[in-house]
Structures are given as structure tokens and as C-alpha cells.
Amino acid sequence: MPSQTRHACLVTGCAGFVGSHLTDSLLAMGYPVVGVDIRPRNEAHNLSGAFGNPLFHYLERDITHHEVLASASALCGDIRYIFHLAAVVMVAFSMEHPELTMATNYTATKALHEEAVQAGAKAFLFAGSAAEYGDDPRLPLKEEYATDATIHNSPYGRSKYLSSSLMQNSGVGCSLRFFNIFGPRQDPSSPYSGVVSKFITQAVDGKDLTIFGDGGQTRDFIYVSDVVQSYLIAAGIVPAPSTGVAAPLSGIYNVGTGNSISVRELADQVVANTGKGSNVLFATPRAGDIYHSRADVSRFNSCTGFQAVVPFAEGLDRTISWMSEAQ
Ligand SMILES: NC(=O)c1ccc[n+]([C@@H]2O[C@H](COP(=O)([O-])OP(=O)(O)OC[C@H]3O[C@@H](n4cnc5c(N)ncnc54)[C@H](O)[C@@H]3O)[C@@H](O)[C@H]2O)c1
Fold it and tell me: Is any ligand 1 atom within 6 A of the Cβ of residue 23?
């Protein structure tokens, strides 16, 4: 399809880790993209490639200030694909700021979703989370395990659950419930950053690694390029591998690998692969953190044939290389 016939896309949270990779992929496929993010343009370092692309428009904006879609459409015409990633993303921060978390992760999602429904958007993709399952011990976690009765360990988990339920109950839109995403551009600077990026930065610097808890906690880690591919399939931008048909999905789907490794194993692998001799230390567990997490990926797989393809060790090496160069 020639690029001028591509429908425009909105990516909220475009300056972040996942949003910037998704933006780059959409632009590479010839889709015009309006990227919305609260970060000022000069702090949106992940978008250095996108800023040089005439198909890209940046809108510095807080998503809690409504009419986001109307403002984005004013820049780029009719927007048909909406990828909604902007959020309060840190569990611990959400415990300290429950109202801001609910306003950003749920109320703003509801408003954007309403705008999208009224505009007749073709696809609405919400970034859900494994945190929606609380500390449910039934592994692997199936989509139907998260219910109104689930005890969410944090406002983050609760707000994501409410927004995913909105996709399900309205019959419009799709929530992809991501497990632990890792890869280049994940910000290691915050105390609550993704554990992979944090460990790698510490190890590359020759510092010791600190595990909160005993290290036995497990996570289902999925590499960022697999996440981008899951978005493109769920939006109906690329055909589902199993059917060859490109069509937007609705409902809730786990996105992970279906496998898990412990935080201790992760720390040991990072120390071994960076070769700087860091020690692994242990500290008090953090409030709101869940212990075990692993996705049942059968729903998304049976609908689309999607499977994560980047092995954990390869993703880790790519991330270590990127972070070593970025230092
Ligand atoms: N990274 C993971 O492991 C993971 C796992 C499950 C779900 N998710 C979800 O995926 C999405 C993307 O996560 P990420 O890891 O790329 O996070 P990130 O922090 O790198 O990106 C989020 C972006 O949203 C922006 N943002 C935050 N509040 C905003 C607001 N009020 N208005 C406009 N922009 C705002 C931030 O500036 C940031 O650029 C989030 O919704 C997150 O909850 C991530």
C-alpha cells in the first residue's frame, strides 16, 4: 500500500520506552503518527529518530487534560488507530499518589476511549498489565482470573484493571495485558525502574545489584520488539500469523512469553554477561510488589498465532550492548 493511503495513528506515551519503539515501527511502515506525551520535546530523547520524519507530529500534552484525540486530529487529520500507553507506570509511586494514578490510568483512558468511539476509530489498544491479577497464586495467569473481586496490591493494578474492563464491557477496544517488558530505551534512572534495565546499568557501572526480597520472585520477561509486534497484530495493521487476516481485536489478551525466570537468576545472568564482578545484595521487599507472575498466553495465541520470538538470553545481550554504548 503506498504511504499516502495509510491511516494516521495516535500513540500516547510516545516518548517512553515502549511507545517510542512502537512509534518508530509505525513510521517505518509509512503510517503518519501523532505522538502525545507529557515530556517536553527536548527531553524526549527516545524520539530522536522520529523527530526527523515528516510523518511524525509531536504533541506535548498531559492526557488528563481531555480532548486529546481532537487535538491530535487537528495536527494530522482523521486518526484511525489509537495506541494508548501513557500512564503512571511505577507501582510504588502509585501507592503514594492514588488519585493521580486513577485520574491518569483510568479517568483519562475513559475520556480518550469515548472520543475514539465517537470518532469511529478503527482500533483502540490499551496497555494493560500483569498487575491486574494482584497476587493471584494460580499460575499461569488466565485473563478471566482478574475480576472485580481481585485484591489489587496497588492503585496501579486497580486502575489498569478498570481500564481493561472498560475495553471488555464496552465491546470496543482491546487491552493487551503485558507482563515484564525489557529492552533498549527502558529508563534505568528511577528507583522503581524495570528490574532488567536497573540491574544492567548497575552491572555495567561495576556496582553491586540489589534485590528487594529474597530473589525467588519470578517474572515473565518479554522483549520489546515482540511487544511491538503484538500491538501491530492486535490493531490489525499486520496480519495474524495463523490466519493471514489483518483485523483489529477487541477484549483482553495476555502478552508474555508463557515462561518465567527468577529475579535471582536474572541478576546472576546480568553479572555473568557484563563481566564486571558485581555482588548481588538483598534488601527489604517493596510494598505492592507481587511474588510470582507468568502469563497464560493461549488466548492471544489461539486468536492470532502470535508467539514471542526473541529468546530471553538474546534480548538480554541486546539490552546490555545498548546500555553499554549509551553509558
Ligand atoms: N514496561 C513494562 O514492563 C510494562 C508492563 C506492563 C504494562 N506496561 C504499560 O505499558 C505502557 C508503557 O510503559 P513503558 O514501560 O513504556 O513506560 P514509560 O514510563 O517508559 O512510558 C510512559 C510514557 O507516558 C508518559 N506519560 C506519563 N503520564 C502522562 C500524562 N499524564 N500525559 C501524557 N503522557 C504521560 C511518560 O512521560 C512516558 O514517556 C504503560 O501504560 C505501562 O503501564 C509496561
Answer: no
Q: If you measure from the C-alpha of residue 55 to the centroid of ligand 1, how many angstroms do you get, rounded to a whole number?
A: 22
Task: Name the band, by pLDDT with cuts 50, 70 and 90, for residue 274.
Answer: very high
What number is the average pLDDT over the span 82-93? 94
CA 299 – ligand 1 centroid, Å: 24
Give the CA angle between residues 171, 33, 168 to the nearest 5°: 10
Ligand 1 mutation pick, 69, 82, 89, max ligand atoms within 8 A of CB: 89
Give the Cα separation of 94 and 80 in Å (integer). 31
CA nearest neighbour of 259 among 231, 296, 309: 296
Q: Residue 5: pLDDT band by 50, 70, 90 thresholds?
A: confident
Q: What is the pLDDT of residues 170-226, one digit of tens each?
A: 999 999 999 999 999 998 876 667 899 999 999 999 999 999 999 999 999 999 999
Domain ranges of the chain: 87-182+222-258+293-310
| Ligand 1: centre distance to CA 105 (Å) | 10
CB 134 within 8 A of CB 152: yes
Atom of ligand 1 nearest to the CA of 15: 39
Rounded to whole angstroms, how far apart are CA atoms 314 and 321?
Answer: 11
Q: What is the predicted pLDDT for the residue at 192?
A: 60
pLDDT of residue 1: 45
Q: By alpha-carbon position, which residue is closest to atom 13 of ligand 1?
A: 18
User: Within 13 Å, how many C-alpha atoms sit on residue 26's CB side?
Assistant: 35
The finding on whether 89 has its CB within 6 A of some atom of ligand 1 is yes
What per-residue confidence (pLDDT) applies to 97?
98
Ligand 1 centroid to residue 243 C-alpha, Å: 31
Q: What is the CATH number of domain 87-182+222-258+293-310?
A: 3.40.50.720
292 forms beta bridges with none
